[in-house]
Write a structure and sequence with these properties.
Number of helices: 31
Bound molecules: 3-hydroxypyruvic acid, zinc ion
Number of strands: 12
Helix content: 40-55%
Mean pLDDT: 92
Radius of gyration: 26 Å
Strand order of the largest sheet: 1-2-3-4-5-6-7-8
Distance between the termini: 36 Å
Low-confidence stretches: 78-91, 94-99
Length: about 650
């Protein structure tokens, strides 16, 4: 590459090279990265074998040693025999360019793409029977497996989904925590994931969770970041944007809606649900509160209205009251309901929603449902069969889909929430902890090994919520409450202690920022006198936080990023706009270790066993056969350990610094 660089340099070519030539031409040393992906992957595997997992594992449980069975898409391959002749699934499914040649049946995406978001909304509203959104690719694993499901395992089942679930309203497969976790822990590109899923599933609308002005992050971004993000998401294949704000703060919500709408996406504005509309003693978030927000969101032009019950608080009776009230007021508006099954009443609540006139309800495939995830797809499909709300989905297909996930889930054993959570728990009605956070907090308590710690944190969570003014709790406001709860437990503070000692306590940063107005304005105002006592003369943001943020300078960001990573793409720049540090680390990792996203999940997490042979397809027609031969017992004088592999039949070795 050096030679090529030099040969393209005019000064070099016309001979006017002086002693400063090299200093003045640093670009000569910017080489295109070597394409030696095989060697990089061997380095990765060597690193895992010598120094252990390169992504933090939640528990000591090991990924299962199985190869999940992928159901055959009989519509495409005709028969099993014919399918088998086409090559291994490994080859087919890790190569999105090798999309099965027979188009999957048409779905709602065709209506949206051919006639636009309004026509899509109309078709949804006019549809007989209740429609489903499948959350298996996003919220289900965010809630059950710490968001760790990898692109590799999503792509394997994608053709099956495209061919058998074309009736879905949408497949939720992006946004929320997936963006961050893909880059940070899975060392893979979330944009590539989206693009590849799109190639395999052209017919079902894709849905993402957009945290309003927080996009897919935990903090308010400048407006231009949110707009550019949505643009790139639509270009990469996203369709439906569920937009919420963690305080139901309208100005934040509207920025997200506008960004999704201007990008050409389907806008699904969401009201985050808290309290209990069926309980007259719970006064703050009553029916009127929700109907008022619904009015505002309809006025702001939402195509679909969502109720986002992130903690699973919507009891069947409340579901009926809320959905019928909105249905009566807006007969033409598509209504979409999201819940979590934390208490165990999720199926009942979703059936009540269908009865009350909801158009779409959220489910996760059986083996990825329940507990803090969504209610079971199979249970709902079966319950509605033959009724006027029949989903039109075939139960045997759900069963096949579920079997894939039942096996695949065992690969993620180190992240299993069921390590600590064995059943649903109706205490969620008291503490109101969102699904994803519930398992997170329990997990933290578990790893600290403190007996009643989780019980204490749950109790403190409810108290912290009241201290902060009984706020809506969902990312990131849920973190504020969770941080305060843990702070109270660790410092043994009662709510009264917090109020009495507010002046001298050093509160968590998230709590102070919330009180300053960094994430928006809570309904009913900030808690006083707590806010004034804590903040004293600290600055306060009065309106929408993003309004006072200067636009991000994408030109400078691009130039900076390209200086270190000359091959950084526009997608990498967008990732860096949201997560600068994480993106830098991702790009550096990728440069060093290559396409680790192409490895099977067990190999990626804990590496192969000595003697084990496996395949990695890094691009169409390029499959590597790898066998681990040995890890040297002795260290070299440089403190390195040699790891021996067979790569496509030839001996290769890598030297890995032993960090132990
Ligand atoms: C997220 O913001 O990731 C959520 O799932 C909120 O419910
Ligand atoms: Zn959710």
């Amino acid at each position: 590459p050096f030679l090529l660089n030099v040969l393209e340099n005019q000064k070099f070519l016309n001979g006017s090279v002086d002693t400063y030539f090299i200093d003045e031409n640093p670009q000569l040393f910017k080489f295109a990265p070597t394409k030696n992906r095989a060697q990089k992957l061997l380095n990765y595997l060597g690193e895992v074998l010598v120094n252990g997992p390169q992504t933090p594992l939640g528990t000591t449980l090991k990924p299962a040693e199985i190869k999940p069975h992928v159901p055959v898409v009989s519509q495409v391959f005709g028969s099993f025999e014919k399918f088998n002749k086409l090559g291994s699934w490994e080859y087919l499914v890790t190569n999105p360019d090798h999309v099965p040649s027979i188009e999957p049946p048409k779905g709602f995406r065709q209506i949206y793409k051919e006639q636009g978001p309004e026509a899509f909304a109309k078709a949804v509203r006019n549809h007989k029977g209740v429609l489903l959104m499948d959350t298996t690719f996003r919220d289900a694993h965010q809630s059950l497996l710490a968001t760790r499901v990898r692109t590799h395992d999503l792509l394997k089942i994608s053709p099956f989904v495209a061919h058998n679930f074309n009736q879905l309203y949408s497949l939720e497969n992006w946004g929320g925590a997936t963006f961050d976790v893909a880059l940070r822990f899975l060392h893979e590109c979330p944009w590539e994931r989206l693009e590849d899923m799109r190639k395999m599933i052209p017919n079902i609308p894709f849905q993402m969770l957009l945290r309003g002005a927080n996009a897919v992050g935990y903090t308010n971004y400048p407006d231009n970041v949110v707009y550019k993000f949505c643009d790139l998401a639509v270009q990469t294949g996203m369709d439906v944007f569920r937009v919420f704000d963690s305080l139901n703060y309208l100005p934040n919500l509207i920025v997200g809606m506008d960004a999704a709408g201007k990008a050409g996406g389907i806008v699904e504005a969401a009201i985050s649900y808290s309290g209990d509309v069926s309980n007259p003693n719970k006064k703050k978030y009553d029916l009127k509160y929700y109907l008022n927000i619904a009015d505002e969101l309809v006025k702001a032009g939402t195509h679909v209205l969502a109720i986002k019950d992130m903690a699973g608080l919507l009891k069947p009776k409340a579901a009926k009251m809320l959905v019928s009230a909105i249905r009566d007021k807006y007969p033409d508006l598509p209504i979409h309901i999201h819940t979590h099954d934390t208490s165990g009443a999720g199926v009942a609540a979703m059936l009540a929603c269908a009865e009350a006139g909801a158009d779409v309800i959220d489910v996760a495939v059986d083996s990825m449902s329940g507990i803090t995830s969504q209610p079971s797809m199979g249970a709902i499909v079966a319950s509605l069969q033959g009724s006027q709300h029949d989903t039109g989905i075939e139960l045997p297909k759900v069963t096949e889909y579920s079997a894939y996930w039942e096996q695949t889930r065992t690969l993620y054993a180190p992240f299993e929430c069921t390590t600590t959570m064995k059943s649903g728990n109706a205490d969620v009605y008291n503490n109101e902890i969102p699904g994803g956070q519930y398992t997170n907090l329990q997990f933290q308590a578990f790893s600290l090994g403190l007996g009643d710690f989780f019980e204490d944190v749950k109790k403190a969570y409810a108290e912290a919520n009241l201290l902060l003014g009984d706020i809506i709790k969902v990312t990131p406001s849920s973190k504020v409450v969770g941080d305060l709860a843990q702070f109270m437990v660790q410092n043994k503070l009662s709510p009264q202690d917090v109020l009495d000692k507010a002046e001298e306590l050093s509160f968590p940063k998230s709590v102070i920022e919330f009180l300053q107005g960094h994430i928006g304005q809570p309904y009913g105002g900030f808690p006083e006198p707590l806010r004034s006592t804590v903040l004293r003369d600290m600055p306060r943001i009065e309106g929408r936080p993003g309004e006072s943020l200067p636009p991000l300078d994408f030109k400078t960001l691009t130039a900076d990023l390209k200086e270190t990573f000359p091959n950084a793409t526009d997608r990498d720049v967008m990732s860096a706009a949201l997560y600068p540090q994480v993106t830098n680390e991702y790009l550096a990792f990728n440069e060093k270790f290559g396409p680790v996203d192409k490895l099977q999940t067990r190999m990626f997490l804990v590496g192969p066993k000595v003697g084990e042979e496996f395949e990695v397809t890094i691009e169409r027609g390029k499959t590597l056969g790898i066998k681990t031969l040995a890890v040297a017992e002795d260290l070299t004088e440089n403190g390195e350990r040699e790891v021996f592999f067979e790569l496509n039949g030839t001996l290769r070795s890598v030297l890995i610094r032993d960090k132990s």
